[in-house]
């Protein structure tokens, strides 16, 4: 089997080359006997490749130390000389043409995988930093910034001219005239303001889009993390139910053999056992689907070990709802995007007023070289003075757009408040339900002990045993499902409150 490929460069003795067998390389014809020699005729090239020398006993043979180099998913095996050559190539290759931003996600194949159990926050950080969707949104912000900077640039022009006069019979002496000059037309103040407004608006909108995408990835990862833990617990309960039904079926079989039971009891238990096994298979299928989805989001070939959250999710935050509403408004990506649009409107208003300011239309500097050696230098500056600039329509349009943004802001705030209050009420309801299941947990454990002693003694009515164990398992399964639904409600509440992303997660910087 071919060695596993990795995305990280690794240097060390090759496992294939350190084998104790002389024919480990697959090219040596020597026997596997420890006292064997290379007796077969070999070409000089084959002798150089063979780790066993025919002129030496096997006990004195020396192997060339082989090394493995695994760079960017390419597994290459060679000698120490090849390693030096590979290192020289890597050293002379130089850095990439343009480094990614510090907050840009790294490639999944180049990121080291940790064997530690992943908490929800660690899973979110790994998924966000490896998400291709987040990466595309971040690169779109970089594109908007570069384009905004390019819009404000104005390239100067180089002007070169030459003329020659050779007029026969004219009173003007012949001459040659060579000109060399530079002309530059700076962008007007109103044009510059408009371009800056466009660039700032697109960059800020891109930043908010990045944040919204990251929040969506975080919510999905947290939800899948909670679902995996809940379905694993449900799978354990289903397996426990199957084991109890198998014990009950064996008990019915012994009773039928002793002629104290009926075949009907055996059939009923068999049907219940088949149903329990089908439930285990159903839970397993759902669990595999959720685990695969979470592994894809984490950028891992297989799902690593998961750790439960450090603090319980299904609890109401200590802050009041009013304080949470204020914090949610300050963290909302949609409201922050509206603030960026309001800032762009301010730049548009400045652009309208700057139309009344005189501005330089162009700058030109040139030189004329005369035949007699004299050089004339000339400079020209064109200044435009606006005589009529209709500002009323532009200012009216800015006012209307500002009113539209204010109405949109109120709608977003109202929607945010409604979502947060609904999530608060839903979380509070599930928290009460989970607390109720917690108070009945001791009673359930007592019922399980009673069922176990009754089955061990074989002196109990089997129908009552079935009824008790079914109720106990159903109650425990309902408790697990209620806990899972409460955790999902807590995740939705955290997203509405602007707490979906971990506090230590690197975020894209604000636009300048």
Structure description:
With 512 residues, the protein is an alpha+beta fold. The protein has 2 domains: 11-110, no CATH class; 121-383 and 407-496, Up-down Bundle (Outer membrane efflux proteins (OEP)). It has 11 helices and 7 strands. The chain has a 4-stranded antiparallel beta sheet with strand order 4-5-6-7, with no helix packed on it. The protein has a 3-stranded antiparallel beta sheet with strand order 1-2-3. Helix 3 packs across helix 5 and helix 4 (132-151) packs antiparallel against helix 5 (189-257). It is elongated, with a radius of gyration of 39 Å.
Summarize the structure.
With 512 residues, the chain is of the alpha+beta class. It is 56% helix and 11% strand. The protein is built from eleven helices and seven strands.
Structural descriptors:
7 strands, elongated, 512 residues, 11% strand, alpha+beta, three-stranded antiparallel β-sheet, four-stranded antiparallel β-sheet, single chain, 11 helices
């Amino acid at each position: 089997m071919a060695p596993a490929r990795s995305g990280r460069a690794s240097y060390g003795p090759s496992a294939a080359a350190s084998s104790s067998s002389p024919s480990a390389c697959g090219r040596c014809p020597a026997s596997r006997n420890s006292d064997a020699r290379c007796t077969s005729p070999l070409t000089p090239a084959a002798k150089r490749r063979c780790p066993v020398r025919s002129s030496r006993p096997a006990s004195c043979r020396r192997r060339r130390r082989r090394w493995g180099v695994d760079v960017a998913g390419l597994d290459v095996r060679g000698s120490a000389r090849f390693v030096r050559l590979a290192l020289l190539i890597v050293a002379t290759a130089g850095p990439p043409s343009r480094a990614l931003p510090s907050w840009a996600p790294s490639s999944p194949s180049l990121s080291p995988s940790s064997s530690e159990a992943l908490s929800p926050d660690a899973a979110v950080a790994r998924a966000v930093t490896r998400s291709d969707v987040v990466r595309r949104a971040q690169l779109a912000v970089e594109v908007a910034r570069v384009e905004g900077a390019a819009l404000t640039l104005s390239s100067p022009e180089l002007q070169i001219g030459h003329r020659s006069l050779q007029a026969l019979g004219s009173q003007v002496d012949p001459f040659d005239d060579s000109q060399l000059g530079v002309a530059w037309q700076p962008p007007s103040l109103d044009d510059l303001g408009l371009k800056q407004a466009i660039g700032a608006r697109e960059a800020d909108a891109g930043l908010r889009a990045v944040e919204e995408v990251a929040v969506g990835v975080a919510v999905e990862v947290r939800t899948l993390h909670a679902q995996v833990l809940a379905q694993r617990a449900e799978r354990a309960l289903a397996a426990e139910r199957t084991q109890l039904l198998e014990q009950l079926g064996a008990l019915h079989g012994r009773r039928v053999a002793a002629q104290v039971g009926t075949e009907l009891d055996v059939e009923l238990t068999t049907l219940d056992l088949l149903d329990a096994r089908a439930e285990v298979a159903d839970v397993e299928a759902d669990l595999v689907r959720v685990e695969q989805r979470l592994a894809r989001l984490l950028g891992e070939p297989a799902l690593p070990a998961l750790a439960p959250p450090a603090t319980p999710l299904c609890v109401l935050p200590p802050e009041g709802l009013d304080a949470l509403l204020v914090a949610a408004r300050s963290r909302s990506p949609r409201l922050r995007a509206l603030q960026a649009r309001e800032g762009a409107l301010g730049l548009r208003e400045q652009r309208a007023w700057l139309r009344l300011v005189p501005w330089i239309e162009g700058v030109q500097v040139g030189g004329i070289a005369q035949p007699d050696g004299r050089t004339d230098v000339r400079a020209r500056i064109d200044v435009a003075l606006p005589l009529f600039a209709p500002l009323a329509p532009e200012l009216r349009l800015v006012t209307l757009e500002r009113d539209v943004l204010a109405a949109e802001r109120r709608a977003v705030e109202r929607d945010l408040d409604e979502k947060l209050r609904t999530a608060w009420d839903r979380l509070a309801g599930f928290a009460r339900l989970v607390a109720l299941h917690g108070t009945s947990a001791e009673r359930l454990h007592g019922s399980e002990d009673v069922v176990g002693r009754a089955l061990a003694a074989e002196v109990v009515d089997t129908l009552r045993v079935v009824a008790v164990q079914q109720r106990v398992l159903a109650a425990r399964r309902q408790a697990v499902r209620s806990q899972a639904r409460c955790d999902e409600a807590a995740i939705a509440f955290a997203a509405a409150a602007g707490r979906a992303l971990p506090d230590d997660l690197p975020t894209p910087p604000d636009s300048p």
